[in-house]
């Protein structure tokens, strides 16, 4: 009697994030939220150009306070009123990037490429980036709402933001590397 093979939860999740419907929803949400957040960023930064990313990567109390000062009361209030959008955005972009990583892995595996155990789990990095994004957002809210401009909290927030950005950029780089490697394999087989 043959025992049916059980799929791990990670394999099932990887299959879920590569479904066409999941990817379409993630792509549409990511694009729409990018447009909304870009508009909010422009409104908050005003003529100074010092937007939310500058605040995320301030690394010092002086720079953080200067950015808040440039925003003025209107910009700081708009930041607080709209930050909830930046809790949805990481969910959307993490599903989109992770889905792209998983799809390229599936396609390359089908073309004969063998991935190590660690490399097979790289699609989880965008979700780790999303967790860092949630933590960063929560710290920024706490700092701005409570006017708690502690040097170490601001530094910690900037480090967390840097890790988030590294994970996003690294994930996108791996996706692009896999995508172009897969295209090369497909052209070679033609």
Descriptive keywords:
190 residues; mainly alpha; 0% strand
Overall description:
- The termini are far apart.
- The chain has one domain.
- The protein has 8 helices and no strands.
- The chain has 190 residues and is mostly helical.
Walk me through the topology.
Elements: H1 9-17, H2 20-45, H3 52-56, H4 61-82, H5 85-110, H6 117-120, H7 125-146, H8 151-189
Helix pairs in contact: 2-4, 2-5, 5-7, 5-8, 7-8
Sum this structure up briefly.
The chain is mainly alpha-helical. Helix content is 81%, strand content 0%.
What does the overall shape look like? elongated
Q: How much helix is in the residues?
A: over 70%
> How many runs of DSSP E, i.e. beta strands?
0
Largest sheet: none
Instruction: Tell me the number of structural domains.
Output: 1
**Measured distance between first and last alpha carbons:** 42 Å
Mean pLDDT comes to 92
β-strand percent reads: under 5%
Sheet/helix structural class: mainly alpha
The unreliable regions are none
Helical run tally: 8
Query: Which radius of gyration do the C-alpha atoms yield?
Result: 20 Å
> What is the N-to-C order of secondary-structure elements (H for helix, E for strand)?
HHHHHHHH
């Amino acid at each position: 009697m043959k025992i049916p093979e059980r799929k791990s939860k990670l394999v099932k999740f990887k299959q879920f994030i590569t479904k066409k419907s999941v990817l379409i929803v993630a792509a549409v949400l990511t694009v729409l939220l990018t447009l909304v957040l870009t508009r909010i960023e422009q409104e908050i930064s005003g003529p100074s150009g010092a937007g939310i990313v500058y605040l995320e990567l301030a690394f010092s109390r002086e720079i953080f306070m200067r950015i808040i000062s440039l925003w003025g009361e209107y910009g700081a209030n708009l930041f607080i009123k709209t930050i909830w959008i930046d809790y949805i955005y990481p969910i959307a972009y993490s599903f989109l990037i992770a889905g792209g990583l998983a799809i390229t892995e599936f396609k390359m595996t089908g073309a004969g490429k063998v991935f190590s155990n660690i490399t097979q789990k790289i699609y989880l990095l965008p979700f780790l980036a999303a967790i860092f994004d949630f933590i960063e957002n929560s710290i920024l809210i706490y700092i701005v709402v409570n006017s708690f401009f502690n040097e170490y909290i601001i530094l910690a927030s900037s480090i967390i933001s840097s890790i988030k950005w590294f994970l996003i950029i690294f994930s996108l780089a791996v996706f692009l590397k896999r995508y172009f490697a897969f295209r090369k394999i497909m052209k070679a087989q033609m």
